[in-house]
Structure formats: structure tokens, C-alpha cells
């Protein structure tokens, strides 16, 4: 609990500095008075001040106390919404996407390219232990195939957790999958045929775009706002103009924007789907990674008649290696189940059993509390570092959950070139061009902030900033 307290206190102090309660040069309350005022230990206050000092907010002066060093001198604005694309397009395969994915696990200390959670958090040991124990007990192995529906205990846990997001389905309405990507792939196979048009948010996680291409589908890009996600007006226009088959969107803390579609927009998207008889494939993979407050509602929560296929996994909350995901496909249940059966019969039960057990014992919730706080602080620190080291022209999204931030640079800069220059420095970023089917985001890039900030990672962000500045000078 103490660890949470100092972090919370540091957040409060930063908010006060940002809000102008303390200005640059002001002396902050002494350790003793703050400890008294906030009713926390001296050690807690010292740790909070250490965070502020490490992040460059305050300066410690011997025998005098802590003084505000900066109050966010460069205010990073939010990136602009993309343009409406005029027509559906085939997605072209990008070697770059494979390259970025392939390099996900290398040079982790300087790798910001993939949307991977911090795999050093304590849940890793819990997974390891549970896996070892269950495999020793002979759970799953030596018992033949799992059912195609998937392990009941996991479906039960998913049904219980879904309630927080407004999803009210029974375990029998859920099918387990090999991660969220697989859930979405089964959903697309169930509701489309080659040549069909899918409405996707723009920018959109490139794994989904690649999948659309692999299935011979077309994507129409609907611009997304950095705070409120897919534009309902643009979607309305697109739906009137094109024979769209399905809407695919990452409803909460999207990748790459980190944005969340507000409830009234979620309702409007569902209304539109009803009016035009479309289905909605909802990728809710980041839905439980909110920084504050309750978990946002899903689109599925507004589903009146089973047209929303709700997909998620534990890849962002536990470990992508588990390959455990699920889908609640509503009225498309039979077709999705058939797709799973004809594609791979059944999923391995051991990872499902591990996930179910970790969830049922409350260890998952405990971990989520720790992860949310860590990611909140790390995202703020990412923005602090960007403010300190990136060019003045930088625009950045301010996620309220999830794992990634989206940066915009002046149009004349090519972030695929930044990717290559960073690669030479052994730093990895995700270039913006991957997130569109029509080359919209060449001056954007995405960074993952989930891992703990170390001097090496901070140095890497500074190097990205230096590279950007030298690119600006030479253009
Ligand atoms: C939005 C989104 N959906 C799906 C996936 C893939 O998820 P999984 O590993 O569960 O297949 C990712 C991974 O980056 C993602 O960001």
C-alpha cells in the first residue's frame, strides 16, 4: 500500500505544479509538513519527492528543500484527426509491419515499437508458478482435445469480468481463442467474404489492417479523434455511401491513439449499425487498463440484438505468450464456433486453465491495480520526456489508459526515416505509415511507455528527440 501512496502523492504534486499552485522557483512544502498534512510517513514523502526530482519537476537544494524546476514549459497539443478517405482500399502488405513485429522482443531496454505490457511486473511470477503447478497436477495435458468452445472455467471468469464493462453474457455465449487477433480473425471470417468492405478507425493498429488484407477484404478508413476515437459523422457518411459489411474498432484506449469512444458515441455507432444492418467487431483488448476510475463501458454494452462481436485477450494484461483470448459473438455464435473448429479444432487448455485460475483467485485484479498505476505514471513520464527532448512542433496524444502514445511531427518529416535512423542507434519505434492503408501518417509515430523508465530508456527518448531535431534542421 505504501508503494501506491508515494506514487499517488507524486501525482498530486505534479498536478499542483501543472495547475499553477506552485510556480517555477517556488519552494514546495517541507518533508515534515507534507507528511503531517497528507498523513503519510516521512519515507513516503521522500519517495514522492525522489520521483519528482528524477522526472525533472523539482530540484533539491541542500538544507533548503525542494524547489519547482519546471512547470511544463512546452505544452504538447493533441495530434490532428486524419482526413476522410474517399474510397475503400485494398491493404498492401508491408514488410515493415513484419519487421517491427519480428523485432518486438529484442533490445527491450531501448524498444518502444510494440504494444507489449511490462513483463517484469509481479504477475509474471504468478503465471510461472501456476503454470508449473497445474502442469504437474496433470491439468489439461494427457486429456485429449479441449472442447471447441474452450475451457468452461475461463469462459466463466470472462463472463464475470465482462459485467464491469456492461457485457451481460453467459459463459455459454463465449468462445475462447488464441488471443484477440485470432478472435477478430474468426469474427471477420464469420461475417464477411472476400471483397467485402470493413470500416476501420484511422489510424488503426496495423495487425488488423494486415489481417484485412490477408482475407482479401477492403478497408475504408474512418478518421479518429485523439480523445474520442472513430468519428461518428464520418462513419455515417461512409455507411451511406458504401456497402460496408462490418465496423471494426478498438473502442477503449485504442492502439495507436490511446483514445476512448465516449458512451454517447458508442450508442450512436450501435444505432447506425442497427439502421444499416451492420455488425460491429469490437476489439476491447485494452479495456481493463484504465488509469483512473471504473473501467469504461464496451460497445457490446449497448448491443440491442446480438450484432456486436466482443473480442479481447490477456495479451496486454498478463502475457502475450499465453495466447489466451475470447469472443462473445452474439448472434454469430454458431458461425464463429464453426470457424474455430475448421481452423484449429480447439485451443490448448493449459494456458486457459492458468488464466482462469489467476483470475478466479483475485490475483489478476491485484495485478491490474498495480499495472494501471505503473502505466499511468510511465505515460506521464513519457510525455514529460517528450516535452523536455522533442522539438517544439511535437503533438502527442494523452492516453487515459492502455500502453501507447501517438506523436505527430510537421508534415515535411518522414517517420519511416526516423525508424531507420533510430534502428541504427539500436532504438525501435513504430512508424506511422503502418497505421493506414493510404499512406496518411508518414509524419507520425507511436511509442510504448509500458516498461519501467531506466537511464537507458530515458537516454533513448533523448536520442529520438535529437534525431527529430536534426531532421527538422535538414528539411
Ligand atoms: C488493438 C490490438 N488488437 C489485437 C492485438 C493482438 O492481440 P493478441 O496478442 O491477443 O492476439 C494487439 C496487439 O498489439 C492490439 O494492439
UniProtKB/TrEMBL annotation:
Q: Does the keyword Zinc apply?
A: no
Task: List the protein's name.
Answer: Probable GntR family transcriptional regulator
Lineage top rank: taxon: Bacteria
Domain (HTH gntR-type) spans: 3-71
Entries under InterPro entries matching the protein:
Aminotransferase_I/II_large (IPR004839), HTH_trans_reg/aminotransferase (IPR051446), PyrdxlP-dep_Trfase (IPR015424), PyrdxlP-dep_Trfase_major (IPR015421), PyrdxlP-dep_Trfase_small (IPR015422), Tscrpt_reg_HTH_GntR (IPR000524), WH-like_DNA-bd_sf (IPR036388), WH_DNA-bd_sf (IPR036390)
- Family affiliation: In the C-terminal section; belongs to the class-I pyridoxal-phosphate-dependent aminotransferase family.
- Per the UniProt entry, the signal peptide is none
| Alphabetical UniProt keywords | DNA-binding, Pyridoxal phosphate, Transcription, Transcription regulation
GO MF term (any one): DNA-binding transcription factor activity
Amino acid at each position: 500500500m505504501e508503494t501506491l501512496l508515494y506514487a499517488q502523492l507524486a501525482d498530486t504534486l505534479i498536478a499542483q505544479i501543472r495547475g499553477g499552485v506552485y510556480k517555477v522557483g517556488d519552494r514546495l512544502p517541507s518533508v515534515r509538513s507534507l507528511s503531517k498534512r497528507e498523513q503519510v510517513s516521512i519515507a513516503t514523502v521522500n519517495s514522492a519527492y525522489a520521483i519528482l526530482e528524477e522526472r525533472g519537476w523539482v530540484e533539491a537544494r541542500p538544507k533548503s528543500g525542494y524547489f519547482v524546476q519546471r512547470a511544463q514549459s512546452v505544452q504538447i497539443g493533441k495530434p490532428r484527426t486524419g482526413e476522410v478517405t474517399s474510397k475503400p482500399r485494398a491493404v498492401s502488405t508491408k514488410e515493415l509491419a513484419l519487421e517491427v513485429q519480428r523485432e518486438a522482443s529484442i533490445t527491450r531496454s531501448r524498444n518502444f515499437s510494440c504494444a507489449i505490457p511490462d513483463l517484469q511486473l509481479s504477475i509474471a511470477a504468478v503465471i510461472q508458478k501456476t503454470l508449473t503447478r497445474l502442469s504437474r497436477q496433470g491439468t489439461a495435458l494427457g486429456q485429449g482435445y479441449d472442447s471447441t468452445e474452450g475451457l468452461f472455467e475461463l469462459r466463466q471468469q470472462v463472463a464475470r469480468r465482462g459485467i464491469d464493462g456492461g457485457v451481460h453474457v453467459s459463459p455459454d455465449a463465449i468462445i475462447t481463442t488464441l488471443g484477440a487477433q485470432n478472435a477478430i480473425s474468426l469474427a471477420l471470417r464469420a461475417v464477411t467474404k472476400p471483397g467485402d468492405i470493413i470500416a476501420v478507425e484511422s489510424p488503426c493498429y496495423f495487425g488488423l489492417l494486415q489481417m484485412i488484407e490477408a482475407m482479401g477484404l477492403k478497408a475504408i478508413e474512418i478518421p479518429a479523434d485523439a480523445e474520442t476515437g472513430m468519428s461518428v459523422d464520418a462513419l455515417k457518411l461512409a455507411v451511406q455511401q458504401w456497402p460496408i459489411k462490418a465496423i471494426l474498432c478498438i473502442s477503449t484506449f485504442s492502439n495507436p491513439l490511446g483514445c476512448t469512444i465516449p458512451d454517447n458515441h458508442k450508442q450512436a455507432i450501435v444505432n447506425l449499425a442497427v439502421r444499416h444492418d451492420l455488425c460491429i467487431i469490437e476489439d476491447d483488448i485494452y479495456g481493463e487498463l484504465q488509469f483512473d476510475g471504473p473501467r469504461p463501458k464496451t460497445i457490446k454494452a449497448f448491443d440491442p440484438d446480438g450484432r456486436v462481436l466482443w473480442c479481447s485477450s490477456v495479451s496486454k494484461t498478463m502475457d502475450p505468450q499465453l495466447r489466451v483470448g475470447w469472443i462473445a459473438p452474439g448472434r454469430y455464435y454458431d458461425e464463429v464456433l464453426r470457424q474455430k473448429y475448421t481452423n484449429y479444432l480447439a485451443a490448448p487448455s493449459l494456458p486457459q486453465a492458468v488464466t482462469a485460475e489467476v483470475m478466479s483467485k483475485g490475483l489478476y485484479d491485484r495485478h491490474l491495480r498495480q499495472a494501471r498505476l505503473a502505466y499511468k505514471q510511465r505515460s506521464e513520464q513519457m510525455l514529460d520526456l517528450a516535452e523536455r527532448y522533442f522539438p517544439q512542433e511535437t503533438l502527442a496524444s494523452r492516453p487515459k489508459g492502455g500502453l501507447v502514445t501517438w506523436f505527430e511531427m510537421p508534415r515535411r518529416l518522414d517517420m519511416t526515416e526516423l525508424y531507420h535512423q533510430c534502428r541504427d542507434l539500436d532504438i525501435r519505434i513504430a512508424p506511422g505509415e503502418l497505421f493506414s492503408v493510404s499512406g496518411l501518417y508518414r509524419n507520425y509515430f507511436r511509442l510504448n511507455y509500458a516498461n519501467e523508465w531506466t537511464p537507458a530508456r530515458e537516454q533513448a527518448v533523448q536520442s529520438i528527440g535529437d534525431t527529430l531535431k536534426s531532421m527538422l534542421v535538414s528539411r
